[in-house]
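BACKBONE GEOMETRY TOKENS
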Amino acid sequence: MLIAWAPMLLLLRRSWEKLQDAIQQIFNENAGELSFEELYRTGYNMVLHKHGDMLYQNVETVLKERSGTLCEKVAQNTDKTLVPSPDLRGLPLASTM
């Protein structure tokens, strides 16, 4: 009976891999070529086929891993500025009326 589930499990695995890759692309600020409609449909189909809990848990795991990585970077760079100050040289001063 496991053979009957094999195509569905393969589709489920591929769907999650597609979403996981897209999440990584978003984290890397490289989301320009992603089709958010396709990603939405992929997630929707997972939920529709009763795999919403797995989707939620996997997304939660990816986000926890990412936040852990970011926390480590912050902890290692406590003496550095995390957000650089804007370069305001050359901009006109605001007038005081």
